[in-house]
Amino acid sequence: MQTKRTIFGNKGLPYLLLAPQLIITGIFFLWPAAQAVRQSFLREDAFGLNFTFVGLRNYERLLDSPEYLNAIKVTVIFSISTVILALGVSLVLALAVDRMIRSGRAYTTLLVWPYAVAPAVAGILWWFIFNPTIGIMPYILENWFGYDWNHLLTPSDAMILVVVAAAWKQISYNFLFFVAGLQSIPNSLREAAAIDGAGPFKRFWTITLPLLSPTTFFLLVVNIVYTLFETFAVIDATTEGGPAQATNILVYKVFRDGFVGLNFGSSAAQSVILMGLVIVLTVIQFRFVERRVTY
């Protein structure tokens, strides 16, 4: 395939066209990241007026803190559960749409609606649904299954609540990409497999899933980043990290230590560790997981 190369008569024009994006990236991404790295080596007062260089002491205290190690464990459980639930449910819904002929567009439109809901609003909605006093789900669980739901006191209930709320917010996004991926698979392949005697389950594992692997890999990266960075509002609206730190994920602990505890050095060190963790996970995924992707 031939690619056309654009040639600019003015050598400065390409840099001028790139300048807005580079300026936005520098101001809103690189400069805050550099500030976080700088602050992670400092100890500041509550107003940020006086500071002392402490080297790696903020990092050493974090790694010796049982509370921070617990936040790492909670984040791992929360991220894995949310990613599996969000990807699994959205794939099932996308497969259902792929089999529909007449009502597929209406079905797709209805499923996209949750994506327009802000994360904080999604958290409040699920807080009402699972509220032990006025929620519908605790009523159903107690009267139909005899389970006394109370996410205000039970850590496992709180974790289930935040995982469901966070996954629900991301399902619509995943669903759109899975539908687009399924529609790009030629029907002739599945029809030929059906003629050869392959059942629906075998066609899914041998044809549909391998050809969906680029979409799945992309969504895997996006969902992991989402659970690590964009679920703060869901946690804040539902459990506020409780009970007993059971849902205190890393990004929420950064907020609590920095904006509530006014411990800027520790909060900045946590931000740097979280940023490094995401970079390492992304590199690992592109280095090892991408080998299993079929393009």
TrEMBL record:
<dbReference type="InterPro" id="IPR035906">
    <property type="entry name" value="MetI-like_sf"/>
</dbReference>
<feature type="transmembrane region" description="Helical">
    <location>
        <begin position="12"/>
        <end position="34"/>
    </location>
</feature>
<feature type="transmembrane region" description="Helical">
    <location>
        <begin position="211"/>
        <end position="229"/>
    </location>
</feature>
<comment type="similarity">
    <text>Belongs to the binding-protein-dependent transport system permease family.</text>
</comment>
<dbReference type="Pfam" id="PF00528">
    <property type="entry name" value="BPD_transp_1"/>
</dbReference>
<feature type="domain" description="ABC transmembrane type-1">
    <location>
        <begin position="72"/>
        <end position="285"/>
    </location>
</feature>
<dbReference type="InterPro" id="IPR000515">
    <property type="entry name" value="MetI-like"/>
</dbReference>
<feature type="transmembrane region" description="Helical">
    <location>
        <begin position="109"/>
        <end position="129"/>
    </location>
</feature>
<keyword id="KW-1003">Cell membrane</keyword>
<comment type="subunit">
    <text>The complex is composed of two ATP-binding proteins (UgpC), two transmembrane proteins (UgpA and UgpE) and a solute-binding protein (UgpB).</text>
</comment>
<comment type="function">
    <text>Part of the ABC transporter complex UgpBAEC involved in sn-glycerol-3-phosphate (G3P) import. Probably responsible for the translocation of the substrate across the membrane.</text>
</comment>
<protein>
    <recommendedName>
        <fullName>sn-glycerol-3-phosphate transport system permease protein UgpA</fullName>
    </recommendedName>
</protein>
<keyword id="KW-0997">Cell inner membrane</keyword>
<dbReference type="InterPro" id="IPR050809">
    <property type="entry name" value="UgpAE/MalFG_permease"/>
</dbReference>
<dbReference type="GO" id="GO:0005886">
    <property type="term" value="C:plasma membrane"/>
</dbReference>
<keyword id="KW-0472">Membrane</keyword>
<keyword id="KW-0812">Transmembrane</keyword>
<dbReference type="GO" id="GO:0055085">
    <property type="term" value="P:transmembrane transport"/>
</dbReference>
<keyword id="KW-1133">Transmembrane helix</keyword>
<feature type="transmembrane region" description="Helical">
    <location>
        <begin position="71"/>
        <end position="97"/>
    </location>
</feature>
<feature type="transmembrane region" description="Helical">
    <location>
        <begin position="268"/>
        <end position="289"/>
    </location>
</feature>
<keyword id="KW-0813">Transport</keyword>
